[in-house]
Design goal:
The complex is a heterodimer of chains A (174) and B (686). Chain A is mostly beta strands and 174 residues long. Chain A is built from 1 helix and 10 strands. The chains are: A mainly beta (174), B mainly beta (686). Strand 10 of chain A pairs antiparallel with strand 31 of chain B.
């Protein structure tokens, strides 16, 4: 036995009608707005609001594909990690990234250390890696190899003088 | 006689005559010859061991080394011993924490001949060495080294430190040149001093937490619980040869956990107290671990070959026995080699591969409104264990650390406390060996299921205190920092005891320096610290006092005069932990006699736990209301008191209603002691 609703008339035609009318109205309103005169390019000084202080991490670019964003626990540093969407299993690859403090990329003297491990298995990377600093807040860690599938914890330690802060992120190797 | 001589001198030259002459000569020399042979035989048959001990390079063969570990006896004291040394003419000497020196030599039986002396030195002894028959060198916790004549009442003569200050914690003779070796823990260095004048001849640096020194062959060997290794030093060099060090942190044979003593018995073999592995290991200078013996006590206070935190070692060549000091048990045990034919005791055969871990002397509980966490330092395995404390027996939900210098690892965690904050709870850990603080966040909400998850504790930040001190003029000190216990105020101010300068460093919750308390002798040996409103309570084991410090640097002593005093005016208790109860009283532990006290503002003091008189104490000291060498304590928001009963490897909680409960190592719980043992009489208790 067929369900009752399968034989009844649907509400399709009147819904389509309402949508069409809405679209037309929307287009007309957009055209009207576009024809308004432009705001003058130069305004009086009194009209110019005070220049707001630069927002924290304003210089930080947006995250792209194959990138990962990490933040230290108290938000002092942010890190953009160039990291594949699907990290390879048991194959060496290079991890690079950029570390930022609120005013911009970290200074060249700041040390950055990338590492990874599987805490619930009680181990880290099978081969220890070494991170090299680059200018502009950059860093690169060659020879990263996830030797088994599962959840890996990535850590980036940022050490400025005596102080160190850690950012963490989880990834899955399939 | 005359005929024989005349015959030989007659001058007749026949062959027969010459033969007779020769025989006569032989007869006359026979008596002398036999005498020589008999004496040689007697020496060879009765004294090979003595001869080889004193002259040969290796008094004990490798084959015999592997039979070492047989229990030969023990000696206990009612007052804890502080240090041990060998005697020049055989036997050993022990100095107790009250300055009593006890000399023990073998008479009719092993070390049964006893002499006692009282040394008039300030502070608590840390190490000792016999210089001459009656003169001993004694180091103290106040950073002094005294030459004391035991037969003369005259004041001890102080040997001045070479650089203004030091903390001698171990001493040894250097056999090759008759000089004295000193372990200076304050600067992490080994000094070689002239044995008569005390003048420094050479030194080796680079040590983190050196504990003992000995000479084997041409090298000096140093045990270091920061490096967790046995490190050689060579004449003419400025630092130890760390790249040639023996061992590493661990429990398998050849690895070490908190090495606390060493004694070379020849140019090649070194006995090492593997303190936190509760065993003695024998290393060759070639780097191979040859043998070990020792097994953690299966029952509280058990000896008979079972070891509990062995430290100092003395090899007595005369009796061919090694004497092992166990400060925590107030005793020494004697060990020798068993006969090749006899079967070894299980304690000699035990080969451990995993670190045994116990509660250390410090722990912390979170202060959130829904507080549920307990974080415990476990220096044996260099980690912090995080537990959910809401059940009768707290449940381990995570751990963090391990041995090392990288972020989130430790080299002897020495202090811990929770910050007071909303959201995920955070605790701060002091790391003595790495000279740093680390802050961790436990990403677990109270309503979460109580299961173990190995990733919930995350490192937030750390600070290198040594590096930070270089930038703060008021933090600079002649000796490297040595962070100990710590406490966090509700305002976020963190107070960290600096053992090396007996002061408290203040930081905010971002680890920025905020100031310093104490110093300049106002504290002697601070061992515990607790938040107390806008200030700190500090327990000073050296001065045997508790004081309250405000952040402006002013302080006021807590009146502990109600506790019995010694003849020298010192309190007959050593404070080891302190906390302020919500009712306003000060709760504190006494590590000397295993007691817990409550002192109010008028000085009235009530004993909460521990035996009131020695006769009350049980043999095992594990009764329901007993403590053995307790450490720090914490007060929960509900007023319950949480005490680390360090010597019993357990936690003791006094609930609001006065009930006492215990958790921790099974054999140390009161219930275990009340269970009838198979060999005991029906209904009998241990």
């Amino acid at each position: 036995m067929e369900p009752e609703y399968e034989g009844s008339e649907g509400p399709g035609w009147w819904i389509l009608g309402v949508l069409t009318v809405s679209l037309v109205l929307g287009l007309v309103m957009l055209l009207m707005v576009g024809c308004q005169p432009q705001v003058p390019a130069i305004r009086d000084a009194k009209d110019v609001p005070a220049q707001p202080e630069e927002l924290p991490f304003a210089s930080m670019p947006k995250i792209q594909a194959d990138q990962l964003s990490m933040v230290t626990a108290d938000g002092t540093y942010r890190v953009i990690l160039d990291f594949p969407e699907s990290p390879p299993e048991n194959r060496e690859f290079q991890v690079s990234g950029t570390a930022f403090e609120s005013s911009g990329p970290v200074a060249d003297e700041v040390k950055v250390v990338f590492d990874a491990g599987m805490p619930h298995h009680g181990h880290g990377l099978a081969l220890e890696v070494e991170t090299t600093r680059k200018s502009g807040g950059g860093f690169v860690t060659p020879g990263v190899r996830f030797h088994m599938k599962g959840r890996w914890l990535l850590t980036v330690d940022i050490k400025d003088g005596p102080h160190l802060e850690r950012a963490r992120a989880w990834v899955r190797v399939r | 006689m005359g005929n024989r001589v005349g015959c030989c001198n007659s001058g007749r030259g026949t062959g027969i005559h010459m033969l007779r002459c020769l025989l006569a000569k032989l007869r006359s020399g026979t008596v002398l010859l036999i005498s020589v042979l008999l004496i040689s035989g007697a020496v060879l048959s009765t004294g090979p061991a003595v001869a080889s001990v004193q002259k040969g390079p290796d008094p004990i063969s490798v084959e015999e080394l592997e039979r070492w570990g047989q229990f030969r006896g023990e000696q206990e004291w009612s007052i804890p011993p502080a240090a041990i040394c060998g005697l020049l003419n055989g036997g050993y000497a022990v100095i107790l924490i009250d300055g009593t020196l006890e000399i023990r030599r073998s008479g009719e039986s092993l070390f049964d001949s006893v002499q006692r002396f009282t040394l008039k030195i300030a502070g608590q002894p840390t190490c000792m060495l016999q210089l001459t028959e009656n003169r001993f060198l004694v180091g103290t916790d106040r950073g002094q080294l005294f030459s004391c004549d035991v037969k003369n009442e005259s004041s001890p003569v102080e040997w001045a430190p070479p650089t203004g200050s030091w903390k001698p914690v171990a001493l040894a003779h250097r056999g090759s040149n008759s000089q004295v070796l000193v372990v200076d823990q304050l600067h992490g260095q080994i000094l070689e001093l002239n044995s008569e004048s005390g003048k420094t001849l050479q030194s080796w640096t680079g040590f983190i937490d050196p504990t003992a020194v000995t000479e084997a062959g041409k090298s000096i060997y140093v045990t270091d619980r920061g490096w967790q290794r046995l490190i050689p030093c060579v004449d003419g060099e400025e630092s130890g040869r760390f790249e040639e060090a023996l061992g590493d942190h661990g429990a398998a044979p050849g690895l070490l956990a908190g090495p606390g003593g060493c004694a070379a018995i020849s140019g090649r073999w070194i006995f090492v107290s593997d303190t936190d592995n509760h065993r003695v290991q024998i290393f060759g200078t070639h780097g191979i671990a040859l043998h070990h013996w020792g097994l953690h006590a299966l029952l509280p206070r058990e000896s008979s070959g079972r070891l509990h935190y062995p430290t100092g070692l003395v090899y007595d060549a005369e009796s061919r026995v090694v004497i092992v000091l166990e400060i925590s048990e107030s005793r020494v045990q004697y060990f020798g080699a068993r006969d090749a034919e006899s079967r070894p005791d299980p304690a000699e055969l035990w080969a451990r591969v995993d670190l045994i871990s116990h509660y250390g002397k410090h722990w912390a509980i979170d202060r959130g409104a829904r507080g549920f966490l307990l974080a415990v330092l476990e220096p044996d395995s260099e980690r912090v264990v995080v537990l959910d404390r809401r059940s009768e027996t707290p449940v381990e939900i995570d751990e963090v650390g391990g041995h090392g210098s990288r972020a989130a690892l430790f080299r002897t965690p020495s202090g811990i406390d929770f910050l007071n904050r909303s959201g995920f709870q955070r605790f701060v850990v002091a790391d003595r060996g790495n000279r740093r603080l680390q802050m961790f966040e436990v990403r677990r909400r109270p309503e979460a299921r109580v299961i173990r998850e190995s990733w919930i504790t995350a490192l937030v930040r750390s600070v290198d205190l040594g590096e930070l001190a270089n930038t703060i003029p008021e933090w600079k000190s002649p000796a490297p920092l040595r962070p100990g216990a710590l406490a966090c105020l509700d305002s976020g101010i963190i107070g960290v005891i600096d053992d090396s300068s007996a002061r408290v460093l203040l930081l905010n919750d971002r680890f920025q320096p905020m100031g310093v308390l104490g110093g300049s002798g106002s504290l002697q040996r601070p061992v515990a610290i607790a938040a107390d409103g806008d200030g700190f309570l500090i327990a000073d084991a050296g001065a045997r006092q508790i004081s309250r410090w405000r952040l402006d640097g002013s302080s006021k002593q807590i009146d502990l005069s109600a506790v019995s005093q010694q003849p020298d005016g010192k309190m007959e208790a050593i404070p080891a932990g302190v906390a302020r109860h919500p009712d306003g009283t000060v709760i504190w532990t006494d590590s000397l006699k295993g007691r817990l006290f409550r002192t109010d503002s008028s000085g009235a003091t009530q004993q909460i736990l521990g035996a009131k008189i020695p006769e009350e104490a049980s043999d095992t000291r594990t009764g329901e209301r007993e403590l053995f060498n307790p450490g720090s304590l914490q007060i929960a928001a509900d007023g319950s008191i949480w005490v680390v009963d360090f010597g019993n490897h357990r936690g003791v909680v006094i609930e609001k209603n006065g009930n006492v409960r215990h958790f921790g190592s099974g054999s140390y719980l009161p219930a275990a002691q009340s269970e009838p043992k198979p060999e005991s009489a029906p209904g009998g208790e241990s």
